[in-house]
Structures are given as structure tokens and as C-alpha cells.
């Protein structure tokens, strides 16, 4: 997920984790674009409007085949306001979904469930649970989750990741 607003990034990360997702976060579109090299991903969630490079520009690069992931990568545009031009551009670029901020846990769950087939939804939680059992602690800072040791790291590309002993993901977004 790429989101430039720290509070929104925090909320979305915790909402996605609560649904059993392995989450990697980026602070902007450029870091998200660079991080796509680590794909493929079950899905990518991009804030439509971020400084320098927004989610729509990242979506355009993916659909044009300018990234390491498939041009058919599942991509969700996430935004507080989508004018008619952005809505048309999202449709033209074949965004898999457009979500409007703010989201509740229930609405996020329902929207994402409609995008992922049951096999992928069920497998995602199982894969995370298996990896959580074998992933060693990487840091000492608290993430707010009881008994979880975490630390935040920023890569040279500006990608921000929270590494937790309970994460099933390794490496920065």
C-alpha cells in the first residue's frame, strides 16, 4: 500500500493486518513503483493523489508494462476525492477497484473480499500464520500489538516498512 499521509497509512495498515493480510507500506508513488520489483502481490492499494507521483501514475506504469509485475496486477485506487476526470482515468487504466476514504473495517473487508477469490482469501491468512511462527524478531520498538516486537525501516527508495516478529513478509516494500 502506498499512502503519503502518516495517519491514513497507520489506519490502513492496521485494518489490513486485522483482516489477516501481510502488509508492506510505502510513503509515496515512487517508492511503491520501485517496490513492485518484489512482486507479484495479491493486490496493491495506491492513494490516487500523492506528491511527485500519485497512484494513478503508478497504475499507468503497471498497465503499460513498465514494471516487474504483470500489467494485470490487481490494483486498487484509494482516495478521499475522485473528480470526474480521475474517475474516468481510473476506468481507462482498468483499476480493479476504487475505494473512497474513509473506510470502516466492515466496508474494507467486504470490498476486498469481492476482489479476491475465496481460495486466495483463505490461503493468505494460512500463509501468514505459517510464516508468523517462523519469522524471527527484527527489532525492539513496539507496534502497539501486545507481545510483538517491531521496528520501522526506510529503504534507500523511500519505502517505509514495519518489520514485526509476527510479519509474514520480509524486506521493505
Notes on the protein architecture:
It is a single chain. With 173 residues, the protein is an alpha/beta fold. Helix content is 38%, strand content 15%. It is built from 6 helices and 6 strands; from the N terminus they run H-H-E-H-E-H-E-H-H-E-E-E. The protein has helices spanning 6-18, 29-35, 55-63, 84-92, 105-115, 118-134, and strands at 44-47, 75-79, 97-100, 141-142, 149-154, 160-164. The strands form 2 sheets. Strands 1-2-3 form a 3-stranded parallel β-sheet, covered by helices on one side. A hairpin with a 5-residue loop joins strand 5 and strand 6 (160-164). It is globular.
Structural class designation? alpha/beta
Helix-strand sequence: HHEHEHEHHEEE
Kindly state the number of beta strands: 6
User: Could you give the order of strands across the largest sheet?
Assistant: 1-2-3
Strand count, sense and closure of the main sheet?
Answer: 3 strands, parallel
Q: Could you estimate the helical fraction of the residues in percent?
A: 25-40%
Shape: globular
